[in-house]
Design brief:
The protein has 424 residues and is α/β, with parallel strands linked by helices. The protein folds into 3 domains: 170 residues, MoaB/Mog-like domain (Molybdenum Cofactor Biosythetic Enzyme, Chain A, 3-Layer(aba) Sandwich); 81 residues, Alpha-Beta Plaits (2-Layer Sandwich), CATH 3.30.70.600; 155 residues, Alpha-Beta Complex (Maf protein), CATH 3.90.950. It contains 13 helices and 17 strands. A hairpin with a 2-residue loop joins strand 10 and strand 11.
């Protein structure tokens, strides 16, 4: 292919009405984003369009105005609702013709299975004028690549196995030849204990300084369950320089956010806590009420956790709190099951009965019912007792539905353990 304009930006259009429902998810764009980024082509947008020829042609025209490369996935089958080829021909204003070689390949594919090719499969041999055919060794739908005024358009089948086998040679060939030589470099910080807006308030004055210059760093702040993520990225043709700049930028943010940064690589909180326990040769037990065993489940999800997890209980009812963790009934009557004294008693009780170095107690109201004006849904009391010093206990209010409250309660408890281990 003749080398023309360089490819810096890309858009992906996933085609298929099934992707607009609730049962099918577009995963191809995730693969394409990573592979394109590896050669310095940045995915700027992605969209999902149903099996509507006119709507798809409209979306494609807009994408060709914005991006150097447009990749369409799906809609290349033999049925009436496979409209990708037709929409491309409409958008580009070119006719289509039947490629006899494609017909023969499809016919031979059926013949190998002892079958006769249905006539509807001839639709898969229609090619917009100016397109180059991409053979499909794993399926019947060939791909297509079109150079349209310096913009590159690629049509790929929807099944991931077929798509990836067809795309990899392009990545190392036609696309790499037209890439800029730049690569996308990334770094990240994972923060706990602060809201998205609080993180933004601290980070914005720092990252706003990076937007100028020949190699600007882009910053994205994302709210995820139980944590806030800061993602830093930059395009550069200097690997060492890019890594150095990103490391310096990440260090500035980490210094400003302090101990609220718990990971740089996306390692989950339970693995961070497990590593700290293992390093210090400490053990842990938990007594959970509202989280229903989720904290113990997360801890034991970590490979090797049998070295430092001794066990735990789900003390859901008031009677079970007394029976299994030794929480005095009079304490529950005086303070309520959701209270700091009961959380401390749960932690003390499970630690003493099992003989661990660290005990954790959690009690709360996950909802949707059970809240009061004084203790609304989302109120959770958490206590951590370690080998050094008194119990650490706090009451938090966690927004969201039942599942979110339970997860965030365990995240808060794990973070309290982490901070206790780091401080001692």
């Amino acid at each position: 292919m003749e080398k023309t304009a360089q490819l810096r930006s890309a858009e992906v259009i996933a085609v298929g009405s099934e992707l607009l429902g609730t049962t099918r998810v577009d995963t191809n764009s995730l693969y394409l984003s990573g592979r394109l980024g590896s050669i310095g082509i940045q995915l700027r947008a992605k969209s999902v369009v149903g099996d509507d020829r006119g709507a798809l042609a409209d979306v494609l025209r807009g994408a060709l105005d914005r991006a150097d490369l447009v990749v369409l996935t799906g809609g290349l089958g033999p049925t009436d609702d496979d409209v990708t080829r037709d929409a491309v021909a409409d958008a580009l204003g070119v006719p289509m013709y039947e490629d006899a070689a494609i017909v023969e390949r499809i016919r031979a594919r059926f013949a190998r299975r002892g079958l006769q090719m249905p006539e509807v499969n001839r639709k898969q041999a229609l090619v917009p004028r100016g397109a180059t055919v991409l053979p499909n060794a794993l399926g019947s739908a060939p791909g297509l690549i079109i150079d349209h005024g310096g913009r590159l358009l690629i049509l790929l089948p929807g099944p991931p196995r077929e798509l990836q086998a067809m795309f990899e040679p392009l990545l190392e060939g036609a696309l790499k030849e037209r890439a800029t030589g730049e690569r996308l470099y990334q770094a990240a910080l994972f923060v706990v204990g602060r809201s998205e807006s609080h993180v933004e308030e601290i980070a914005q004055p720092i990252y706003s300084r990076w937007r100028e210059g020949s190699a600007p760093i882009e910053t994205t702040i994302l709210a995820a369950p139980g944590q806030i993520e800061l993602h830093l990225s930059m395009r550069s043709d200097d690997p060492e320089g890019a890594e150095r700049l990103l490391a310096e930028a990440r260090a500035q943010l980490a210094d400003a956010l302090g101990g609220d940064v718990f990971s740089f690589g996306g390692t989950p909180m339970e693995s961070i806590v497990g590593e700290l326990l293992d390093r210090r040769n400490l053990t842990i037990t938990v007594a959970e009420s509202c989280t229903g065993g989720l904290l113990l489940s997360r801890l034991t999800d970590v490979p090797g956790s049998s070295k430092w997890v001794l066990g735990g209980i789900v003390a859901y009812s008031n009677a079970s709190k007394t029976l299994f963790a030794g929480v005095a009934a009079s304490m529950i009557d005086a303070h309520g099951a959701v209270s700091e004294p009961v959380a401390v008693a749960l932690a003390e009780g499970i630690r003493a009965r099992v003989g661990s170095d660290i005990g954790v107690g959690i009690t709360g109201i996950a909802g949707p019912s059970g809240g009061t004006p004084a203790k609304p849904v989302g109120t959770v009391a958490i206590a951590v007792i370690g080998p050094d010093g008194p119990a650490r206990v706090r009451t938090v209010w966690l927004p969201g539905g039942r599942t979110q409250v339970k997860f965030n309660a365990t995240q808060t408890a794990l973070d309290m353990v982490r901070r206790n281990l780091v401080a001692t």
